[in-house]
Amino acid sequence: MSFLELAKERYSVRSYQSKPIEREKMERILEAGRVAPTACNFQPQKIYVVTSEENRKKLAEICRFTFGAPTILVIGYDRELCWKNKRMDGHPSGETDAAIVTTHMMLAAREEGIGSCWVGVFNSEEVKAALGLPPSVTVTALMPMGYPAEDAAPAPFHSEIRPRRETIFEL
User: Fold this and answer.
1) For the domain that residue 114 is a member of, what is the CATH number?
2) Structural domain count, the chain
3) pLDDT, tens digit, 9 for 90 and up, residues 124-147
């Protein structure tokens, strides 16, 4: 399958089997995040793999969009490690870096037959407190993942893509 086919085929999975993700598949997914590009290659990303029932329940109490997934990746960045753009009043690259890392892992998961969903509806401080994460970490995404349930399907609006003329401009 070509990269473009993979990108078009991937969708946000919101229903999962209880079957755990095999270790070798998870390692390949995590490696895709580890090698993702970051500003100045500072690599501030922090990826927490949540598989224990106790911690998945904690996350489900904070965010209702964990969908009973057997694994939840908590993705963020360390504010002390990320590059800061001096030409933009020290604007940190961490959120963008973490987004690139998340995208790499989402696509790698799909390649492995693993479904995922990018979730951004949560309070970073609550997630950090629940999991005991360091104060310098900002959580930017939760990514429930696992084998899609038999009834899993893309949301009805999944294939609604804006026309090229509305999103791509040649100058």
Assistant:
1) 3.40.109.10
2) 1
3) 999 999 999 999 999 999 999 999
Could you report the per-residue pLDDT of 7-18, keeping only the tens digit for each?
A: 999 999 999 999
Query: What is the DSSP annotation of 109-157?
Result: HHHTT-EE--B--S-HHHHHHHHT--TTEEEEEEEEEESBPTT----TT
In whole angstroms, what is the distance from residue 103 CA to residue 19 CA?
A: 23
At 62, which amino acid appears?
Answer: I
What's the rounded Cα separation, in Å, for the pair 145 and 37?
22
Measured CA to CA, the distance from residue 49 to residue 161 in angstroms comes to: 31
Per-residue pLDDT tens over the stretch 62-80: 999 999 999 999 999 999 9
Candidates 108, 105, 140, 143; CA nearest to 12 is 143
Reduced to 3 states (helix: H, G, I; strand: E, B; else coil), residue 61 is helix
Is residue 155 a contact partner of residue 31, using CB atoms and an 8 Å limit? no
Range of the domain at 88: 3-149
